[in-house]
Amino acid sequence: MAEIHVTASAVIPAPPSIVYGLIADYRRGHPSILPPEYFQNLQVHAGGIGAGTRITFQMRVLGQTHHFFARISEPEPGRRLVERYPETGMVTTFKVDPEGAGKRSRVTITTAYTKAGLAGWFERLVAPRFLRTVYAAELGLLELEATARMAGTTVAEYTEASSRGQASRAAAG
């Protein structure tokens, strides 16, 4: 049986309360950090924020669409959130640690599961690279969302304002 364990981490320039709040909010926050090229149709079936939430979604993996059901728990509310996928045995953990006197957050996403047979052997070769790519995109969107929230605006407004600022600095320079 192949054991698959994938981790990705990034420092987000926002306090843990904002970052964790985005991750734990499956109605608004979490959908905004899911890269649309991989994730579709996130639906909340119970709860919506943190522990007790139940979700389904679709994920595009190597050209195929897979359907997932997850139960959410919070072993350490405000710091660690866990998605358990009972049908596959897969577990994904989001861990948020403060850095820089609480002004930044180190976010670590870890997925672990086992898979038997030839499929397990293949996934052990392919899944780590694929999931690291997915998590890099997810962490990038998390940074964008958290930064926009700190600025009190939407991502679109924040991106447009940043672009205008860069354009005016370039014209002045």
Summarize the structure.
By secondary structure, the chain is an alpha+beta fold. 38% of the residues lie in helices and 39% in strands. The chain has a 7-stranded antiparallel β-sheet, covered by helices on one side.
CATH level-3 fold name: Alpha-D-Glucose-1,6-Bisphosphate, Chain A, domain 4
Identify the CATH architecture. Answer: 2-Layer Sandwich
Parts with pLDDT < 50 across at least 5 consecutive residues: 167-172
CATH superfamily: START domain
Largest sheet: 7 strands, antiparallel
Count of strand segments: 7
Supply the helix-strand structural class.
alpha+beta
The topology string of helices and strands comes to EHHEEEEEEHH
Describe the overall structure.
This protein has a single domain (2-172), classed as 2-Layer Sandwich (Alpha-D-Glucose-1,6-Bisphosphate, Chain A, domain 4). It has four helices and seven strands, in the order βααββββββαα. The chain has a seven-stranded antiparallel beta sheet with strand order 1-7-6-5-4-3-2, with helices on one face. It has helices spanning 16-24, 29-32, 117-150, 155-172, and strands at residues 2-12, 39-46, 54-61, 64-76, 80-85, 90-99, 104-115. The model is unreliable at 167-172 (pLDDT under 50). The N and C termini lie far apart (59 Å). The longest helix is centred in the C-terminal third of the chain and has 34 residues, at 117-150. It is globular, with a radius of gyration of 17 Å. The chain is of the alpha+beta class and 173 residues long. A hairpin with a 4-residue loop joins strand 5 (80-85) and strand 6 (90-99). Helix 1 (16-24) packs across helix 3 (117-150) and helix 3 packs across helix 4 (155-172).
